[in-house]
Amino acid sequence: MIYPLIRPFATLAFKAYFKKIYFQNAENIPWDKPLIIAVNHPTSFLEPCILACFFPKPLNFLVRGDIWKKKFYIKLMRGVNLVPLYRQKDGYSNLTKNYETFEFCYQALAEHRNIVVLPEGSTSEEKRLRPIKKGMARICLSTLEQFPDLDILVIPVGANFTFPNRIRSEVMFKIGEPLRVKDFQKIYEENPNRAVLQLTQKVYDALSPLVLTIHEVPDEQLAESLFEIYRNEQPAGTLSIVKNDGTRLENEMKIADGVNKMGAFEKDILKKEVAEYFENLKNAGVTDLGIAQENRRQWYENILIFAGFLPAQIGKFLHLLPLKYARHVADSKVKQKEFYASVYIAVALIGSLIYYLVLSVAGGLIFGKTALLYIFAFFLLGWFSIIYYDFFRVWQQKIKAKKLPEKEKTSLMERRKKIAGTVENFLR
């Protein structure tokens, strides 16, 4: 009941939080089949919630059972299609409750309802796929045991965030080819454990190339810096938020692969060059975005900035209360970085709904039906402020770069050109 009600509001929240949401190969998903959607798990709730908002069919989600304690939360979570899955560390008494979950999954798949599984089993914000658990394979094969004619498909989905805790960042989903569980049916009849292991490995092998991978943790900063230089050459536009396009992710995977394959000596040299370049940017009070875009200024930009300033400020001010409160809650309550964005977005969404409800009631009492026009205007101004400040941040960095002494700016551009050449080589 709650799922279809909250979905449109959550969709708006994600479109406000992320500057771009990319889907690649979405046509690979045969929605007329019973599906297990296997997604890697870099954040606490973002990737399954985004899929729930932008995939065309309702989804059910297997989630950690240890959060199912209070009756209110249990009812709420069931209302948004969450199903508990308990782990060994949750205790034997809770493990026995998994039989109910398995029965739910069997029946859901038999009725062609779709289930999202996070097979890594825990969340960790890192740019690599971690080992996956066997529970998903057991559910698939056990369902097939009960319904032998069911054509269950596992859909591997890679979730790749630029900076999940940063507002107006990007997320890129890559969907892989479906895996038929029936291909393991005969093996399961002969040796269930072997079938579970083989299906688990098959899913891992299918999921791995869908996840942007940096092999070594010490190389992450270098890779992130190179990603930044690549992105600033072609900044994502603001108006079209959801795109069916894999170019961005494919190119960033090439850059990551280039870093992974570099020899230690040349990698150390590149790390030093990149670190010095970004340190020089910091000392100069500019960013790579400003240096990359400084020569791409348009004559009309100043006009748009000044013309849009007042409505953008009004839109920002009108929505300050719920957003400030969401930031306060996330800053003060969240201890694990993987939960930060999820908590912020959830609190901002609930706070905004309450805020608009109060405005609607108060406005209705004072202005009558005319209040609806004011509320709609508030919403439009808020959305305009998001678009405006995306544009403003780029414009501001261009202006800062423009004001640099010519000698210093030229030096930075030359350093950047050398590093960008390495990025271009990775992309070939």
The tally of beta strands, per DSSP, is 9
Range of helix content? 55-70%
Q: Please state roughly what percent of the residues sit in beta strands, choosing from under 5%, 5-15%, 15-25%, 25-35%, 35-45% or over 45%.
A: 5-15%
Are there runs of 5+ residues with pLDDT below 50, and where?
A: none
What's the SSE pattern?
HEEHEHEHHEHEEEHHHEHHHHHHHH
Shape: globular
Structure description:
This protein has 428 residues and is of the alpha/beta class. Strands 1, 2, 3, 4, 5, 6, 7, 8 and 9 form a 9-stranded mixed sheet that branches. It is built from 17 helices and 9 strands. Helix 9 runs antiparallel to helix 10 (247-261), helix 13 (301-318) crosses helix 16 and helix 14 packs antiparallel against helix 15 (337-367).
Question: Which descriptors apply to this entry?
Answer:
428 residues, alpha/beta, nine-stranded mixed β-sheet, 17 helices, 9 strands
Could you give the topology of this structure?
Layout lengths: L1 H16 E7 L10 E5 L6 H9 L4 E6 L6 H9 L2 E4 L6 H4 L2 H13 L3 E4 L17 H12 L6 E9 L7 E7 L3 E2 L4 H6 L1 H16 L12 H14 L8 E2 L3 H15 L2 H21 L3 H6 L7 H18 L1 H14 L3 H31 L3 H32 L3 H22 L1
Parallel strand pairs: 1-7, 1-9, 2-5, 2-6, 3-4, 3-5
Antiparallel strand pairs: 6-7, 6-8
Quick description:
The protein has 17 helices and 9 strands. With 428 residues, the protein is of the alpha/beta class. The radius of gyration is 24 Å and the shape is globular.
